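Supplementary Note 3. Input sequence used for the single-chain structure prediction.
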Amino acid sequence: MRRTICVAPLLAALLGLAAGAAAQQTAVSRASAVKKAKTAKTAKKKRLPKAPPVDPTAGDNPDGDDLTVRRAAVDALGDQAGSIVVVDPSNGRILTMVNQKLALQSGFTPCSTIKLVTSLAALTEHVVEKDTNLRLGRYMQFNMTTALAKSNNEYFAALGNKLGFERVVHYAQMLGLGEKAGLDVDGEQPGTITDAPPKWGGMGLMTSFGEGFSMTPLELAALLSSIANGGTLYYLQYPKSEAGIEAFSPQVKRTLEIAPNGIDDIKLGMRGAVEIGTARRANYDPNENIFGKTGTCTDFRAGSHMGWFGSFIESGKRQLVVVVMLTSPVKSVSGPLASGVAGAFYRNLSDQKYFASADISMKSEKSDLPEILVCCSHH
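The predicted structure, written as C-alpha cells, is reproduced below.
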C-alpha cells in the first residue's frame, strides 16, 4: 500500500521557519548597523579637529593694564585663538585686553548673546513679564529665567516676532551695538546693525542667533557693564600709562531707558545659566555670584565658528565684567567652552586673593531659581 505524503503543509512550515530566521537575521543586522553607526558617530565626535595653537598675546601693548588681571586672563586663554576683555563696570576702565588686534576688529556674529538685548526689549515693551510662560510646543514652555538659563531659541524667536524689527534695533542701539564702545581707543572699529530683517529666518533668527548684527568684544563688555552697574552705559577707556591711569575720569555715554526691574529680572536667568544652564563651566565656586550668557554659532561672513561668553562677577564690593570670544576655522569652539575659559580666569584671580579684600557677603540668588524645563536649546 503506497503512502501518500502531503507536501504543501510541510513546505509551508519550512518556508515559515526560513522566513522567521531571515527576519531574525535582518533584525540582528539592523541592530548591528545601528550600533556601528552610533559608534562611528561617537568616534567622529572624539576626532573633531582642533584649531592650531596660537599666541593670542602677539602684538599686544599691555602698558597700563592691571597686571594681575592680565596674567590671569592670559593663563586662562592659553594658546587658543580668541580674545578676553576685562572691564570695571563701575567706571568703564578696561583693565586688560588680550589679543587686542582681534578685539578691536569690526565685529562678529553675537550668536545667543543677543538674547540679552531681546530680553530687555521684551520686558520694557511689556511683551512678556519675567514669569510669563510661553508655550512652545505640546510639552514645552519657558519663562524669561528658564529661557535665558537654557538659551532656548524658540522662546527668543517668539519674542522677536512679537517685538518687530524697529523695536529690536532701538534697544540694540541703546545698549551700544553698532557704534564704538570705547573713547579714543586706538584702532577700535564698531560693529554693525543690519537695515532690514534677515531674508532667511527673519526676526526669529535675528533675536535668537544675532543674525544681522556684528558685535565686538568691547561692545559686549560695555553692554554687560551697564547690566552689572544697574543701567549706566559708560564709554570704555583704556589708559596706557601710569599718568593715564592717574588722569582717568569716567565718562557716561547714556543711561538706559528700560523697565525698572528689567535688569534684576534678567540677572536671574544669567545666574541660572551659570548654575544649571549652558555656562556651568564658569561656576568655579558656587559661593561666588557669577552672571553670564553663552553664544555658539557660525559667522559665515568671517568664515569662523564662534564661542562667546559674556559675564560679570559680584564678589563682595568688587565687580568685574569678563568677555571671552573664541574663534576657529573648525568646529572646535562653543559658548560653553568660552564659559570654561572665564571660569579659569575667575579661579586664577581667586587664587591670587584678588577678591579677598571684599568683606561684604552678598546674597546668592541660587535658591530663587525655578526648576529648569527640558528643552531644545542653542548655547
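The chain is about 40% helix and 15% strand. The two ends are 85 Å apart (CA to CA).
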